[in-house]
């Protein structure tokens, strides 16, 4: 587990929880108690997030569904923590879920972390999903520049020549051209 990610999560959750002593308990308790928090009704979001993160980074697949829900949350910090835990979880369903979230045009505002997770996973679903998302982001007036940049950079990192056409098309977009050029330069000749 990345200690910076853990400290940031703990600080954010502690602030959200206020004086609730369960923050410290959740930070130290065992996996069965953490799973009970995930399945118990009426638990606050911060408690579920902390439990899912700890379970996910411990490799416990019971956290998968909660982490996927958090990966698509409106709060970027929750998405980032969920992406980190999902990457460490190693569940074979993760890439398919991240691709589905990244390519869901109705939730494109929350696609940044699923895109980054796909790149980190280097799964077969990554390149087709990133190409599809980037193609949509090239439409005139699209306002999801951060998602487009993450796709272009990720395609360069993944190094699949199939990305060449969409990266060439991205060269014509101000604000995206530099990243697209760098990505093209990383593709094998």
TrEMBL record:
This is Adenylosuccinate lyase. Pfam families: HEAT_PBS. Keywords: Lyase. InterPro entries: ARM-like (IPR011989), ARM-type_fold (IPR016024), PBS_lyase_HEAT (IPR004155). GO terms for molecular function: lyase activity.
């Amino acid at each position: 587990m990345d200690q910076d990610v853990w400290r940031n999560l703990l600080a954010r959750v502690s602030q959200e929880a206020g004086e609730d002593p369960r923050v410290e308990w959740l930070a130290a308790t065992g996996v069965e108690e953490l799973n009970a928090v995930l399945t118990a009704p009426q638990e606050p979001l911060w408690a579920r997030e902390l439990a899912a993160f700890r379970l996910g980074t411990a490799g416990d697949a019971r956290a998968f569904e909660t982490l996927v829900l958090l990966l698509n949350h409106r709060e970027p910090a929750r998405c980032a923590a969920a992406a980190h835990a999902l990457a460490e979880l190693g569940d074979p369903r993760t890439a398919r879920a991240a691709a589905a979230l990244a390519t869901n045009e109705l939730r494109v505002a929350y696609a940044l972390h699923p895109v980054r997770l796909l790149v980190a996973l280097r799964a077969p679903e990554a390149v087709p999903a990133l190409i599809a998302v980037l193609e949509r982001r090239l439409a005139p007036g699209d306002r999801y520049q951060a998602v487009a940049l993450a796709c272009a950079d990720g395609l360069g990192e993944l190094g699949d020549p199939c990305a060449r056409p969409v990266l060439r098309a991205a060269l014509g977009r101000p604000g995206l051209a530099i990243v697209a050029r760098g990505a093209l330069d990383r593709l094998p000749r």
